[in-house]
Design goal:
alpha/beta, Conserved hypothetical protein from pyrococcus furiosus pfu- 392566-001, ParB domain, 15 helices, flat, disordered C terminus
């Protein structure tokens, strides 16, 4: 296949869901800046269609070029017998920036569309089946745990990762009780357990019939039995969220934006990273609110 310069106006994104669940405006701005500086380094993937070309992979690069007003974009034109979902998956997995939930949903869609077993999909994607199972585990837990994993992925305070879910499911399976998955994950969130601590706690509980998870944590961390419970991750409260946003907004309003241009090195990169993480999390909050409770005019002012 050769790289061709295609007219952007001839490329259709189509109604089919792509691997990524959303195009974050901040990361898109960052990509646009990079493309404006050095151009598109990796061609997008398309297939011929009746209207012109159908996008297979590269939605962010295409959106960034549209944002910059570029008339063309470098692309590889795939043959008609190419497996679109497999190409989308592999192309994004190689980039290593697909969030865990998007990755799992895409793999499940690929399995369903092509009626493939986990073994077959693992072979086609070039990964161990155990890794594939770990990816898919996130789809089997409650949405609050999925959100916690995404919060961790985007740099938030949540300690929960895919590894924790895998450990919890293995422990629950060993004890023949699905309810234990939530018990373990709640403990991870409450006590902010890392993977190593979680594994040791479950080993302690598994080797002693009369030891609870909480007692195992206290034993591991050498916390006296009569000591008060750790505060850990406090129960979510909407009033606290509103208060936090109000304080954050007040501080941001006072920020002298002109001085941000003077930042250099790690300080600049860290502020940029944290700002993008916060923007992404806030976008999820806004998207989750019922339409009737969102003030469209205020959102327009903010954007």
């Amino acid at each position: 296949m050769q790289v061709s310069q295609l007219l952007i106006s001839e490329i259709c994104v189509g109604e089919e869901k792509h691997v990524r669940s959303r195009l974050d405006s901040n990361t898109l701005d960052g990509l646009s800046g990079c493309i404006d500086d050095v151009g598109v380094l990796q061609p997008i993937l398309v297939m011929k269609s009746e209207e012109g070309y159908l996008l297979v992979a590269g939605a962010r690069r295409l959106a960034a070029c549209k944002q910059l007003g570029h008339p063309t974009i470098p692309a590889l034109v795939l043959s008609e017998d190419s497996c679109v979902r497999q190409i989308q998956l592999i192309e994004n997995l190689q980039r290593e920036d697909l969030n865990p939930l998007d990755k799992a949903v895409a793999v499940r869609m690929y399995m369903s569309e092509d009626k493939l077993s986990k073994t077959a999909v693992a072979k086609k994607l070039g990964i161990p089946r155990t890794t594939l199972n770990d990816w898919l585990d996130i789809l089997t837990v409650d949405s609050r745990y999925q959100d916690a994993v995404l919060n961790n992925y985007y740099g938030g305070s949540s300690p929960l990762t895919l590894s924790h879910i895998t450990l919890a499911k293995r422990y629950a399976m060993k004890k023949n009780s699905d309810k234990l998955v939530n018990v373990v994950l709640d403990s991870v969130l409450y006590y902010a357990l890392n993977r190593t601590e979680t594994k040791k706690v479950l080993e302690l509980v598994g080797s002693a019939t009369d030891l609870s998870i909480e007692d195992a944590i206290r034993k591991l961390r050498l916390i006296p039995k009569d000591a008060p419970k750790q505060e850990g991750n406090e129960e979510w409260d909407v009033d606290k969220l509103v208060s936090f946003l109000a304080k954050s907004g007040d501080y941001l309003v006072k920020t002298e934006l002109t001085k941000l241009n003077e930042l250099e090195g790690e300080q600049r990169q860290e502020l940029l990273r944290q700002s993008r993480v916060l923007s992404s999390l806030l976008a999820e909050v806004i998207a989750s609110l019922p339409d009737g409770k969102v003030d469209k005019r205020s959102l327009t002012k903010i954007s």
